[in-house]
Amino acid sequence: MRMVLEGIKVIEVAQVAAVPMCARHLADFGADVIHVEHPVRGDSWRSLQSGQGGNAGVPSDFNYNFEVFNRNKKSVAIDLVKPNGREIIYKLAENADVFVTNLRFWEREKFQMAYEHIKAINPKIIYGSVTGQGTKGADKDLPAYDTTIYWARGGLAHTLPLPGLQGLNQRPAFGDVVAGLALAYGIVMALYAREKIGIGQEVQTSLLETAIYQLTFDVAGALATKKDLNIYSLDNIDGTQEEQQERMRLLSDVQTALGKLFEFSGQRSPNPLANAYGTKDGKVLRFNCILADKYWPVFCSITDHPELLDDPRFNSMDARRENRKELYFILKKAFLEKTYREWLPLITNIPWAIAQNLVEVTNDPQARINDFFVPINHPVHGRIETLNNLVRLSDTPATIRALAPEFSQHTEEVLLETGYTWQDINKFKEQGVIR
After folding, report:
1. Is residue 208 a contact partner of residue 149, using CB atoms and an 8 Å limit?
2. Other beta carbons within 10 Å of 15
3. What mean pLDDT is reported for the chain?
4. Fewer C-beta within 10 Å: the chain N or C terminus?
5. d(Cα 233, Cα 209) in Å, to the nearest integer?
């Protein structure tokens, strides 16, 4: 059986979730995917799955998570730090069709793996990537994870619960798999464009825009009305005054109960540095410091607890896991002592994000500078904004060429183009076949 992508060679310089899922989709349809891993550590997804190191999933001796993200691939171990390691990648890229990566921009420059480097070797190659927060803006190089950028900053943590209630517990790679699917779709379009017009190009999407795409219905509402869904819902509870008061009382009771449950969940988190903490002004900061030993000194410094750095209760991952309840309350108290704006300059280089509502999402500087929203002129409503396409092709980009059609606006036009005459069309109308 011939497969649709048979003969397509893909070089994957990536790890963890989003880009590996993209390459897995390509591999499933017959592409020859070479997954490049670090020669000592390998892909970190090998150890961040199957419930290892926390409550990410059901514990198992079978590496089920790595399997489902990386099936149908070949693994090679190459050190990008070493010049001759990079030369191997370049040699592989010479005859490749696709190069995919989730290296951050500074890493692409450091290892000379940016689009311009790979394009210089193979001008017709398709270069695909998933970024955290777009290709432009002050935050484009900051650490970005599914739980921080997609879930919190992108608005899902705010939107999915019932109005007035706290957020749901996010699941690992929840947004990564959608971003990976989007990138795969963009790469296939770029391959089709190469067949038609003979060019290679760059394809990219981001975790932040993927979250906004997932909330298309609600974000479109926020763009049009400048209102947040949850606030709107609470302001429009139907019923008598007594019924409204009863609902608000029930919401308050449930919120109190959920607050206790979330606090209990926070205490149980095996890695207190991958947790959510409230600020003095009611904002929620979502951290995801998977490399917790690396960031432990930073947490001790910014929370004004230098004495904890070498405290045997907390100075290792195992110790923090053992004493996680005690550490959770220490960190919770510390983060409540400052407002979000006061915390902002202190946490810049830590993997984190603020949980945003829909109005905040539509005004997010990263969303704005990366053109996640585009203006259109409406004949009735004037200038309005809508969501851009989440997949960006450098040479053959998506465009908005027409507004959504009015009901049956093009029936006659389409039938005439298909070969029907006006006589046919009038007859169809008389018969009630068309409108």
Report:
1. yes
2. 23
3. 89
4. N
5. 25
Paired residues of 285 in beta bridges? 277, 354
Alpha helices in 9-134 (DSSP H): 18-28, 64-70, 83-94, 105-110, 115-121
At 53-103, the pLDDT tens digits run 444 667 777 888 888 899 999 999 999 999 999 999 999 999 999 999 999
The pLDDT value recorded for residue 385 is 94
| H or E element, residue 292 | helix 292-302
Half-sphere exposure of 356 (CA within 13 A, CB side): 26
Closest CA to 127 of 155, 158, 89: 89
pLDDT digits (tens, 9 = 90+) for 153-194: 999 888 887 665 555 667 778 899 999 999 999 999 999 999
**CA 155 to CA 160: how far, in whole Å?**
9
What domains can you pick out in the chain, each with its CATH number?
A: 9-152+169-210 (3.40.50.10540), 247-356 (3.30.1540.10), 405-435 (no CATH)
The angle subtended at Cα 339 by Cα 337 and Cα 344, nearest 5°, is: 115
Q: What is the mean pLDDT of residues 357-376?
A: 95
pTM comes to 0.87
Dist CA 340 CA 354 (whole Å)? 9
Phi-psi region of 226 (alpha: psi -120 to 50; beta: other; left: phi over 0): left
Tell me the C-alpha to C-alpha distance, in Å, between residue 397 and each of 24, 201, 392: 24, 10, 6
* Cα gap 185→187, rounded to integer Å: 6
CB 351 within 8 A of CB 287: yes
In the sheet with 284-287, reading across from the earlier edge strand, the strands are: 276-278, 284-287, 352-354
Question: In sequence order, what DSSP letters do the residues of 113-155 get, joined into one string?
Answer: -SHHHHHHH-TT-EEEEEESS-SSSTTTTS---IIIIIIIITS
Which 8-state DSSP code applies to residue 273?
T
Quote the CA–CA distance of 121 and 147 in Å, as a whole number: 36
Using an 8 Å Cβ cutoff, are 287 and 273 in contact? yes
Distance separating alpha carbons of residues 1 and 319, to the nearest angstrom: 54
Phi, psi (5° rounding) for residue 11? -105, 120
| 201 residue type, one letter | Q
Among the residues of 139-286, which ranges form H helices?
156-159, 176-197, 207-214, 216-225, 229-235, 241-268
Q: Count Cβ atoms below 10 Å from residue 103 Cβ, excluding itself.
A: 19
Contact 207, 150 (CB under 8 A): yes
